[in-house]
Design brief:
2 copies of one chain form a homodimer.
Chain A lengths: L3 H6 L14 H8 L6 E2 L5 E6 L3 H18 L4 E5 L2 E6 L9 H14 L2
Antiparallel strand pairs in A: 1-2, 2-4, 3-4
């Protein structure tokens, strides 16, 4: 069983091809260590975050963006006043890969600092 | 006829109540000075922007966010790699107000600097 901290310490690897596509059992197993994340109907690894101010919202956006650049794995972000929805998927495998869960775990780890 | 530069020099005002709701003729008239903006099916003033890099994407997000704080009028942003969709509407009037068009014009003016 992978823990949040173990997953957060991994790094994204260049993944290409359907052999890196996670099946739903593998995705469900990794989901158990990611609080309040879910797989959307469209197959995206997703979580809604709330913030007390716009400044805090943008700080989160920029933190996630910095992580995205470092890992070369970029989520979709829907940003409003005090709210951000983060969605990960891996275009090059055609669905969810371990990289998506690694980045989600890194966000959770960052929020605990 | 309002020009882009005239609209961009205005500032958002606190608007509340349906007397500030623009009808579709008023919205269409203001749209003519905003290149590639449109009113979506959901009634949002919207434009899709493309960028050559993630850094340029985030610079735009932060510029729009700074503008949003200064004008106290905050859009919804959908942010991906090299792309941002900006959507404005005015919750307190239940649709589009002049504030939405003012902020859109300010974004256009900023992009011309």
């Amino acid at each position: 069983m992978t823990t949040l901290n173990e997953l957060a310490r991994e790094h994204c690897r260049p993944l290409r091809g359907s052999e890196h596509l996670l099946d739903s059992a593998q995705a469900d197993s990794l989901l158990t260590c990611l609080p309040d994340w879910h797989v959307s109907e469209a197959g995206l690894l997703q979580k809604n975050f709330r913030f007390a101010s716009y400044a805090a919202t943008l700080l989160f956006v920029n933190t996630v963006a910095g992580l995205a650049e470092r890992e070369n794995h970029h989520p979709d972000l829907v940003v409003g006043y005090g709210r951000v929805t983060v969605s990960y998927s891996t275009h090059d495998v055609g669905g969810l890969s371990r990289n998506d869960f690694t980045c989600a775990a890194k966000i959770e780890a960052l929020l605990r600092i």
